[in-house]
Write a structure and sequence with these properties.
This protein is an alpha+beta fold and 145 residues long. It is built from 7 helices and 4 strands; from the N terminus they run βαβααβαααβα. The relative contact order is 0.23. The structure holds adenosine-3',5'-cyclic-monophosphate. This is Nucleoside diphosphate kinase homolog 7. It is found in: Cell projection, Lamellipodium; Cell projection, Ruffle; Cytoplasm, Cytoskeleton, Flagellum axoneme; Cytoplasm, Cytoskeleton, Microtubule organizing center, Centrosome.
Amino acid sequence: KKERTLALIKPDVVTKIGDVLELIHSSNLLVTKAKMTALTGKQAADFYVEHQSKPFFNNLVQFVSSGPVVALELMGDEAVSIWRRLLGPTDSSAARKEAPRSVRAQFGTDAVKNVGHGSDSLAAAARELEFFFPSTVGHGPPNTA
Ligand code: CMP
């Protein structure tokens, strides 16, 4: 089934985005939107609100707002699960043992500097895509510049 998902490339690997794109391309996913941006602490906290009670929340928010990130909309068959499988286990060290060809195994450092995020469900994908690529319909006049 054709799906859309959000891939967030975190500050640790923004300079290696080409390598990540190569793996995305090899997995038959299309990049249908892309944006480089920087999140404020508040924006990062909003994005990760489901984790706000976790012990690592402050670390996570601090790291994700520490530099530029690249948000990608990926599209393809089973895009949600394919991208998460491509990322590999959350902790990059575990990824090196359990999924040595995964993105986190190859480019990640630990559980915080772990290359990227992927939506974990279609509902999460819808929310997270809207976060980075808000639909502009009904939100004011079109940009006529
Ligand atoms: P992500 O896919 O972005 O979604 C939640 C994030 O929380 C996860 O990747 C990790 O970066 C982070 N995370 C999960 N578990 C831990 C942990 N034990 N220590 C630090 N960060 C964690």
